[in-house]
Amino acid sequence: MVETIVFYTLSALILGLGVAVITTPNTVHSVLFLVMNFLCVAVIYVVLEAEFLAVIQVLVYAGGIVVLYLFVVMLVNLKRDPEAHQDPRRLSLVGLALAGAVLLELAGIVVYSYSREPSAPVAAAAASPVQGNVEQIGWLLYTDYLIPFEVASVLLLVAMVGAIVLAKREL
Amino acid sequence: MAIEAAPMFDTDELVLNMGPQHPSTHGVLRVILRLNGERVVDADVVIGYIHRGIEKLTENRDWTQIILLTDRMDYVSAATSNLGYCETVEKLMEVEVPRRARYIRTILAELQRVASHCLWLGTHAMDIGAMTVFMYAFRERELILDLFEEYCGARLTYNCMRIGGLPLDIPTGWGRKVRAFCDVMDSRIPEYEELLTNNRIWLERTRGIGVISGEAATALGLCGPPLRGSGVYRDVRKDEPYAAYDEFEFDVPLGTNGDTYDRYLIRLEEFRQSLRIIRQAVDGMPDGPVMGKVPRLIKPKAGETYHAIESPKGELGYFIVSDGRSTNPYRLRVRPPSFCNLQGLKPLIIGHLVADVVALIGTIDVVIGEVDR
Amino acid sequence: MIDLVIIPLFKIAVVLNGVLVSVTFMVLLERKVIAWAQSRLGPMRVGPWGVLQAIVDPIKLILKEDITPTKADKWMFTLAPILSLVPALVVFSVVPFGGDALFYITDINVGLLFIISVTSIGVYGIILAGWASNSKYPLLASLRAAAQLISYEIAVTMTLVSVILTAGTLSMVGIVEAQQETGFWFGFVQPVAFVLVFIGGLAETNRIPFDLPEAEQELTGGFHTEYSGMRFALFFLAEYANMIVIAAVVTALFWGGWLRPFPSVDALFPSVGALSFLNLAFLDLIPSWVWFFGKMFVFLYLFIWIRATLPRYRYDQLMRIGWKVLIPIALANIVVTAVVKVWLL
Q1: pTM
Q2: How many structural domains is chain C composed of?
Q3: Of the candidates B5, B9, B10, which has its C-beta nearest A169's C-beta?
C-alpha cells in the first residue's frame, strides 16, 4: 500500500519535472529540473530495493553527466536572439512521426508486459547463485548479459575516440 | 590529420577587469584582460589610480622639502628614493659628501633593499599560494624596520637623508645590531629556500613562465632584477658607482633563462650580496662628520643633471633642472624603475593563464605609488 | 517505534550538531596551527588562548548583512549554498564512528558508493554559486570547479574500486571489519590507493595546493566572491564538513577505522606465545570511537599542515595531474589488485 502511494507520487513528480525541463525558458533551471528528475528516479530504485542502481543513478547521471550539461550550458551564450529557434531546416512532420513511433512502442511494451506472466526476470534473479544487490547485478552482467555489456563498453570507447578526434583537430 | 579550424561554437572572448581593486595587483594596478577560456589573448595595463602629481608638487617645494615627497613614491623602499634624490642635487651643486655619511647611506640603502625584497618575496609567494613564506619574510622585514626606527624614528617614510649628508649620526651600538641582523637574516634565507626553491609546485609555477630574452628586455627598457634575470649585466652600483659602492666587494647575480624562477633566484642571491655589503660597511665604518659643507639656503646654480641609482626595483633616476634663481626646482622628472618594468607586463602575460598573470605581476615587483607618482 | 524512529532521530541530531560544532572548532584549529607554523600566535583575544573564537566567528557571520547582488539569479543564489552543505552533512549518515551500532546512524550495503555519489551532488552548489552570482570571477571559478571536481572524482572513485576489491564489500562497517579479519589495515595493503585518495580528497575539498576554485589571489575569492553573511557561512561549513568527511573516509578505509593499533600480532605469529605482550591488549580499554576520532584528527592536521606549506597549482597543471597521473595509476592499481586477489590469494 505504502509502496504504491510512494510510487505514484514519485511518478507524478518525475513527469511534472520532465515537463518543467522542456518548458522552462532558462536553460540552467531546466538542467536543474533534470537533476531533480534523476534524483526522484533514484528514489524509485530505492523503493524497488535496488540500492546499487539508485546510487549509481545519482553518481553517474546527477553527479557526472548533468554537471557536464551544466558546464556546457554555462559556456554557451544564452543571450541569443529567438531567431535561432526558427530553424528553416526544421522537420516538424518527421519529428511528429518519430514521437508517434516512440509512443506506439511504449504502448506495445505496456500491452506486452501485461499479457505475460511478470515472473520471468524475478525468477532469473532468484536463480543466481549469489546474494546481495551488487553481487546479483555483477553476476547478471557477466553471465546472461555479457555481450550487451561488452557492446556497450565498445560503444563508449568509440564515443571517447570520437570526442578526442573532434576536440583535437590535429593528431 | 588536419581538419580546417571552422568554429563550431561562438567563441566569444571574455573581458576581465583585474583591478584596480584586486587582492594581487599590488595596489591599484588595473589590467584589462581579454581571455580565451583562461588564456590571455590581449591585455591592457591601466595606471594612474594613485597619481598625486609629485613631480609637479616639487616645483613649489624648496629643495629640502622634496626629500619627504620622494618617500611617498616607492613607499616600501623610501631610503633609496631619498638617496637618489639627494645625490642628484649634490651632483648639481657639486657638494662633497663625507665618507662616513656615504658609508651609512650605503648601509641604509642595502638594508632597504633587503626589506623591499622581503616584501616582494612574501607577496610573490602569496600570489602563487604559499602563505607561510609571506609571514616569514615579514618577520625579517620587521627587524629591518626596527633598525630604521632606531636610526630615524620612522618605520615607513624615513626622510632619512639630507642634501650633503645625513641628518643624524648612527646611534651608539647600532652597527652591532645591524651585524646581528645580518646573522639572523643569513640563517633565515635557507628557510625561504626550503619552502620554495626545490618545491615541485613552485618550480612548475615559475619555470618557463614569463620568459623574456635579453634583447627584448633591453628593448623594453626593463631594469633591475627583471633585466638581470634575462642575463643582461647592468647594475648601477657597479657601472656607475655612487655612495660608497666602489669600496665594497659584491657580485651581481645574473639569470640565464629569463623566466620567473630566474628572477626569483636572483633576488634571493641579492639578499646575500646585500648582507655582504652591509657587513663590509659596518666593519669598515670610518669616523668623521656625517654632513658635508652645504649652504643654509640650498639654491643650485642654473643647470640640469641626471643621476641614477640602483633601487631594489631597478634603475631609479632623477633628472632635475634648476633655474638658479628660485629655491625650488624648475622641473624634476623621475625615471621610476617600477614604471619602466611595468612596460614589460603586457608582452609577458600574453599567452599565459590567469593564474600566471598574478605570478607575473609579482615577479616584476611593481609599487604603484612609484608608477603613478 | 523507539528503535525505528526515536533512536535514529537522536543519532542524527547528535551527529549533525557534532559535525557543525566541530567545524567551527576545526576553523579555530586551522587558524591556530597555521599561525604556529608561521611563528604567530593566531587568535588570542576571545577566551583563554582564543578558544571562544570558534563561537564568535559563527555569531559574526550570522549577524552580517546578507547581500544578494541585483543582477543575480535570486533562487539559484540562495539554493547554491544549501546544495553544497546538505550533501556534505548527509554523508555522515554512513560514517562508522565506532564499532558498536550506537556509533553510526546506519550501515547500508552500498555505503561507500553512497558517500561518493552524494558528495558528487555537492558540485552543484559551487557551479550554481558561480553562475547565479552573475559575475565574472565566480563564473571562471565555477568553470574551474566543475572540471576539477569531476576529474578528481573519477580518479578517487577508480582508486576506491581497488579498496572495494580488497575488502569484498561496499559497506563502510564491512570494510573496517574486513581489516579486522585480515589483521592488516588497508593502508599497508593499498598504500598507493591511500595516497591517491588523499590527494584526490585535497582536490575535492578545494584545499591547497588544489584550491583553484577559490584562489583568492587570482579570482578574488572564487565562487563565493559575491556571498556574504550566513550564505557565505554555509559554503564555509560545507568545505570543512567535506574535509571531515574525507578524513573519516580515509580513516575507515585505510587506517582501520575504530580499530586499535597492532591487532595483527596474533595473526602474524600465532605460534609464538611469548610475543603475546606485543598484542598490547590494554589498548582495548580505550573506546573504539576515541581511536576513530584520533585517527581522523591526524588527517585533518595533515590537511592544515599542507595548507601552511605548499603553493598552489595552476589550472592546466591540476588537470594534467588528475588525468595523466592519478587516473592511470588508479587503473593500474585496480588491475594489480584484481590479479593479486584472483591468482595469488
Answers
A1: 0.83
A2: 1
A3: B5
pLDDT value at residue A119 = 55
pLDDT digits (tens, 9 = 90+) for A17-74: 999 888 888 788 888 888 889 888 888 888 888 888 888 888 888 888 888 888 777 7
Residue A77 at interface with chain B, using a CB cutoff of 8 Å? yes
Task: Kindly state the average pLDDT of the residues A76-82.
Answer: 55
* Closest residue in C to B131 (Cα–Cα): C308
B356: chain C residues, CB-CB within 8 Å = 314
**Domain around C126:** 2-344
CB contact under 8 A, B129 and C208: yes
Low-confidence ranges of chain B (pLDDT < 70): 1-12
Chain A residues whose C-beta is within 8 A of a chain C C-beta are 26, 28-29, 32, 35, 51-52, 55-56, 58-59, 62-64, 67-68, 70-71, 74-75, 132-134
Q: Cβ of C123 and A62 within 8 Å? A: no
| Secondary structure of chain A in HEC code, one letter for each residue | CHHHHHHHHHHHHHHHHHHHHHHCCCHHHHHHHHHHHHHHHHHHHHHCCCHHHHHHHHHHHHHHHHHHHHHHHHHCCCCCCHHHHCCCCCCHHHHHHHHHHHHHHHHHHHHHHHHCCCCHHHHHHHHCCCCCHHHHHHHHHHCCCHHHHHHHHHHHHHHHHHHHHHHCCEC
The domains located in chain A, with CATH, are: 1-78 (1.20.120.1200), 103-171 (no CATH)
- Provide the ipTM: 0.80
Minimal C-alpha gap between A169 and chain C (Å):
19
Give B333-362 pLDDT, tens digit per residue.
998 898 888 888 888 888 888 888 888 888
